Amino acid sequence: MNDQFPPLNEQMDLIRRGTAEIIREEDLARKIEHSLKTHAPLRVKLGCDPSRPDLHIGHAVVLRKLRQFQDLGHHAVLIIGDFTGMIGDPSGRSKTRPPLTLEETRKNGQSYFEQATRILSTHKIQMLYNSEWLGTMSFSDVIKLGSKYTVARMLERDDFEKRYRAGEPISVHELLYPLAQAMDSVAVRSDVELGGTDQKFNLLVGRDIQREYGQDPQITLTMPILPGTDGVEKMSKSLDNYIGISEPPQQIYGKTLSIPDTLIYDYMLLATEIPPPELAEVKRQLESGSVNPRDLKRRLARTLVTLYHDASAAEAAEREFDRIFKKKDVPDEIPDIRVTTDGGMISIIRMLVDAGMVKSNGEARRLIEQGGVSIDGQRVSDATANITLHAPVVLKAGKRQFARISAS
Fold first, then answer.
1. Does the pTM of the predicted model rise above 0.90?
2. Ranges of H-type helices in 224-369
């Protein structure tokens, strides 16, 4: 990484890619122009939530934007929220978040950094724990900080307003979270702060508090929230709709092919570095219907595996996927399970439950209705179907569960 910065228009074009909002864009241009004149990199801050140490490609959206700033010659500042993690970010929360211990936040923070550097360059990067400055503030310091913001402004925040109107409790320490995050910006003299769209309020508070401390307010740049593989909810490990950046190549590849067609362009835009002209062509193909969406998903899957592993791993993952799924083949080793039948017949729901592939009749029914069950490569669409077990059959449940079923 060198200090030879690209021209303003080139920097702005890359920074705008996939961005939800820049506040304010003209101020960012001014800061970049000053950077070009002084040969001084911007300090671009990203606050990291240490509550969940396992990163997925949803987290990677903002990390990739930070990497773009690095590639433009700017300095990345990763703030591990070990101190604020003990408060718990209330963003999007309908109730108070359980706090973590300092030890837990430190351990998770180290894991975060190790995974984040799969995306970020290890040059021009600084990792700091915000306990370094927040942990040394006295109660008097906190009172002074609290005097710089009003309760009315704090209650303008959507999640606080909803909870207040619904009579849900809001702890005083939660009101301090945006102020604590703002002090991170003051402590590192942030020029730009990145975050998801759900972080907009916190980032704007940072601008206000920087002004109060006599600093030029940071630019706030928000990135869209990436939907999970279900195409409905925000990507989340707890919802099992995520693609982890540390997962094996076969899992990244298979999960990518499971996304709805409507997400192909957004995933390519936000989760990869596919060049803009190629993205424009993908968009045209999707809108015109001139390409099979599955072909684009295969390209996306190869791209993601290459990003987090390498090209040979992507090729191997595609071959394995084709062997198991596309050619209706099955893995070499699958469990052999015997089930009790009634005269050689068994209902598909009971087969799934007795084989231990689902936990309940209801889950079995939902999986069948979603098209996730097949016998010997043929999809079972009728939840009331009875299966004849005069000979063993290969039962597939979901995307990756296989079993050879025979009558006991």
1. no
2. 249-257, 264-271, 276-288, 293-308, 311-321, 348-354, 361-369
